[in-house]
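$ run holo --ligand "zinc ion" --emit tokens
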Amino acid sequence: MNNNVKICSIASGSNGNAYYIENGEEAILIDIGISYKQLKNRAKARGIDIRKIKAVFITHEHSDHVRGLRVFSQNYDIDTYMTQGTAHSCRPYYMPAKAAKRIRCGETIEVGPFKVFCFAKPHDVAEPCSFRIETGGLSIGVFTDIGCACDGLAENLAECHVAFLESNYDEAMLRDGKYPEYLKRRIASDEGHLSNAQAVRIIEQVNPAKLHTLILSHLSADNNRPQIALKAFAHLAGRYKISTASRYEAGEILYVGEKECTGQQQTIVFPERLDRVELKVL
Ligand SMILES: [Zn+2]
Ligand SMILES: [Zn+2]
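-- output --
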């Protein structure tokens, strides 16, 4: 087992998404929906070295997932992976400097110490996908922008030790809020976003046995609040370590290893086996 895995949500929400996973000297990003400048600043604030990023995986063409790709790719020699449908539907000025590599749903890509599983998800774009990453004996899921629970989500969530799971909106806040009707319908549809209640049901139904840390992600600024999302999950808090990803700053770094580290990082210590994890917040 490699002891140097670091996980961080650099941005999460409708104004930008970027999820960072590092193993030793290499790292990957899932989505890059904030500007290159923001990415640099947020990463620096958490001591993340973005020069380690070797590849970026794009879930779909919405700008909150791809906005920073072009400029980032002009500054660093990275590989980009996206489905054919995403590549065709993505605005040309977001596309990377170096031709993006195609990835198919159902496929697994290996980049350095990372094994990246790609699977289809229901969302109102051309060919959306979610990713689950295996590295250092650890399985990490990034599951946002999903209209409804699907088999792929259940199967992959069941494998995760750490999962970013969308908890986009509170159903009453969306219903009673200021959004126009067409937008409310779009968000709540089976190709929109997951509500807090839907996300709770998914965790209850899948009952992921290996899951240790659950980070509620892509929270709406208008139709949700971190404390409301956390309240919906309160009955699961004894079983999993649950937090929310911020839209405004990079989150705490989740460090996975056998050695404790100092500072403000959250450390998951794996004494011998992955299913016997113990969390230490230093
Ligand atoms: Zn999004
Ligand atoms: Zn989207």
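-- notes --
The radius of gyration is 17 Å.
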